[in-house]
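RECORD TYPE: inverse folding
INPUT: structure tokens
STRUCTURE:
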């Protein structure tokens, strides 16, 4: 009498073999379909006949296909207005304590280096000063006056601990802030990519600059920052630009930019947003 187990083993083996063959056929079929789809993408109907684009058109088409997800991503990158209460909760949770770590020093040092380009102790306006980490370092190189603004009352409360003579902090919205004072330097440290219209915001703050004054812009290097640099580069002259990287591979770009020479007070004084909501965001 033969055991039933060998038969079962043979049947199981044949079944597995058939499955393997079927899977192989499916894969080949899928490859064939993918090839046909790709060929269909590369063809266009011209006058009722199929036309295969030239190599140049294929390259342009490929670039266009790459730009589609980027452009759609830009629509999601466009910052949403954030209230001061949201920033307050994040500061209270400690989300921004990492700004005081050594990993952040590299781009701070670049900001300080550009700040020392002034021929005398500078009058400084710091937009989105946060809890005052950058000001801690600015105190060491000296200044004539310093004003830091931020939308978060919690951040300003923490920054007040660093106040020295000639410095002050205010809770203010970067979109609506105004002052009669003039400054040698306006700093946008890790802030510009929070603005919905960054170039217009910078243009507005250009009217607060003294003669030969300039702006310092620092941004973490990622996709939204590339979009902001593009917008800023179209209207502002770059005096100098540097890139820094920390031990973790995180990168920043820091630039000195000058206000447009044709800047007029009336143009700069126009509001950044014509239609505003109750939710406002300071960058």
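DESIGNED SEQUENCE:
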């Amino acid at each position: 009498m033969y055991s039933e187990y060998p038969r079962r083993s043979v049947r199981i083996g044949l079944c597995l073999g058939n499955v393997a063959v079927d899977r192989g056929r499916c894969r080949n079929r899928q490859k064939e379909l993918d090839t046909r789809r790709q060929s269909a993408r590369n063809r266009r109907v011209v006058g009722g006949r199929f036309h295969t684009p030239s190599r140049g058109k294929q390259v342009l088409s490929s670039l266009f296909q790459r730009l589609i997800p980027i452009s759609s991503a830009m629509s999601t990158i466009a910052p949403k207005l954030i209230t001061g209460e949201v920033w307050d909760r994040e500061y209270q949770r400690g989300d921004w304590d990492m700004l005081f770590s050594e990993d952040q020093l590299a781009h701070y040092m670049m900001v300080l280096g550009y700040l020392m380009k002034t021929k005398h102790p500078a009058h400084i306006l710091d937009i989105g000063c946060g809890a005052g980490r950058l000001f801690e370092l600015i105190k060491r190189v000296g200044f004539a006056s310093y004003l830091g603004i931020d939308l978060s009352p919690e951040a300003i409360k923490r920054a007040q601990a660093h106040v020295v003579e000639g410095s002050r902090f205010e809770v203010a919205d970067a979109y609506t802030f105004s002052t009669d004072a003039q400054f040698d330097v306006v700093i946008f440290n890790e802030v510009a990519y929070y603005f919905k219209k960054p170039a217009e915001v910078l243009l507005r703050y250009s009217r607060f600059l003294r003669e030969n004054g300039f702006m310092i812009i620092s941004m973490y290097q990622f996709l939204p920052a590339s979009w902001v640099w593009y917008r800023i580069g179209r209207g502002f002259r770059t005096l100098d630009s540097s890139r820094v990287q920390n031990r973790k591979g995180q990168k920043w770009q820091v630039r000195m930019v000058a206000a447009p020479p044709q800047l007029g007070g009336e143009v700069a004084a126009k509001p950044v947003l014509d239609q505003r909501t109750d939710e406002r965001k300071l960058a």
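NOTES: The first helix runs from residue 4 to 41.
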